[in-house]
Amino acid sequence: MIIDVVKNILVNQMDVDDSKITMETRLNEDLKFDSIDKAELITSLEDEFDVMVDYEQVLHVNTIQEIVDEIKKYIKED
After folding, report:
1. Biggest CA-to-CA distance, the chain
2. Is 32 exposed, middle or buried (0-12, 13-18, 19+ CB in 10 A)?
């Protein structure tokens, strides 16, 4: 599932505490992400799912749910 990949990247590549990650977690407010952190996350997700996303669109997302929804636009989930 997409959420599992997102969590894995956040925990293993971006040093986010797993207990802080829910679908409602806000990148800016809860995880203190800035635009560089978001860009790193997007790049990791692109690599993981072998897709290219619209950075302008994705940089405006702010919750884990919004990230999952955005990635769903680019892939077909089994």
Report:
1. 32
2. exposed
